[in-house]
Amino acid sequence: MTHLVVVGASLAGLRAVEAVRRDGFDGEVTLVGAEEHLPYDRPPLSKEYLAAEECPDPRYREEETFAGDLDVELLLGTPASALDTAARTVTVGDRTVSYDGLVIATGAHARTLPGTEHLEGVHTVRTLDDAIALRAALRGGARRLTVVGAGFIGSEVAAVGRKLGLEVTILEALETPLARAVGERMGRALTHLHRRHGTEVRTGVAVEEVLSADGRVTGVRLGDGTEVDTDVLVVGIGARPATDWLEGSGLTIDDGVVADETLAAADGVYVAGDVARWPNALFSDVAGGTMRLEHWTSAADQGGRAARHAVDPAAAKPYETVPYFWSDWYDGRVQFVGIAPDDGDEQIEVVAGDDAQGGPFTAIYRAGDRIVGALAVDMPAEVMKYRRLIGARKTWGDALELAEQRRAQRAAKAQQAAQQAGEQRGEGA
Amino acid sequence: MRINVDWDRCTGMGMCESLAPDVFEVDDDGSLILHTEEISADQEAEVREAVAACPTEALSLEGPIDA
């Protein structure tokens, strides 16, 4: 192995080049990125980056780090346009780059509403340039924000809008937001969080037409004819894996690049991050088939794994993981670990707090006799304890036992706090 | 070997706790509790995983490993 090429210069790509250098790989390493920017931290772009008075530098590393410590050749600003797995080459602009091992980490593109791409005031949130534009729009005197899509990105932007004092409306096509990600009941619970903070959520509505005047968005017309006026329209309807450039490459493309359990998509070709679809063996007994994750944690993890496998295929091992994502809404945090089985609410048990008004609460998810997922709203101490159980394939009974232990611990803590408060009052008297 | 926590960056995400629960724990208010600062040889592998898994890159390691 003499030349590792990594296509995609976001988190997975960065972790790919860092992992092999940390292991002592001394061949050539090239990192190809479609954007001009050095790899940067994406999660804050829909959160504090939009809300903070001063925006922090989101770049993970300085340019000197790539040239120096990492000894990585950067090809930024031009997307890869073709892959030839027989010749082992990647086309980048007018260059043909040969590889011995390849990591595909091209991520995903934000989905847009057709015909609105050039309207002023219409935004998506995926790239740093998107966030810079939206930040200016939200802070530039806008009064009303409308978000299409009540997913995690849309919800985070809505929360920022409220923080900045805007009137915020979320329009969601489904009857229950996030039903696929966290299940129906928990989707309803999360919707309460919006309403509690003054965000209007309209579910089961279709966006019929985006209204504009002089090239600028003015509102949307819904399926029932109602019009919603707005100054800024954010489209948060998901992402599409960036696989167009792989057409004709011979790789299997099916909502992502399909790989085996070691993340191999072809001989010498491995995948990582949002573009990767692979069988996660941890859940093969309860949820067959492959999965594709759009989470920070899996991108970071898969980036390193894919690159190690690419430089030493003989040592490739199956990759399994307990998915984790978080989302910051208003002043709170939503955390989810594992998977949400899609066969109904009877598989979910609230083990702490109360979901009726949107939390704080913790809920756990069952499939077969296993615990397979956990959701926490504003209970940061809970969810990671369940992540360990999920990763160790523990039973539902084990999970309920942990829930009972945690209840007792919280009660003891509350009692202790009450006692201390009582003593303080006693001393004061 | 010692763990450094950049307390300005840490937001209590908890990945560290899920990978190395003897070392890290997130408290009820979301703050990180460090059960130990010195890492023994048998904890090194999982602590390295925790450092790599921190979404805010708040963790780092320094110094030699104790025998």
UniProtKB/TrEMBL annotation, chain A:
This is FAD-dependent oxidoreductase. Residues 324-397 form the Reductase C-terminal domain. Keywords: FAD, Flavoprotein, Oxidoreductase. PANTHER family: APOPTOSIS-INDUCING FACTOR 1, RIESKE DOMAIN-CONTAINING PROTEIN-RELATED. Pfam families: Pyr_redox_2, Reductase_C. Residues 3-303 form the FAD/NAD(P)-binding domain. Its cofactor is FAD. It comes from Actinomycetospora lemnae. Residues 411-423 have a biased composition (Low complexity).
Automatic annotation (TrEMBL), chain B:
Keywords: 3Fe-4S, Electron transport, Iron, Iron-sulfur, Metal-binding, Transport. Pfam families: Fer4_15. It comes from the Bacteria. The keyword Electron transport applies. Residues 1-29 form the 4Fe-4S ferredoxin-type domain. This is Ferredoxin. Ferredoxins are iron-sulfur proteins that transfer electrons in a wide variety of metabolic reactions. Its cofactor is [3Fe-4S] cluster.
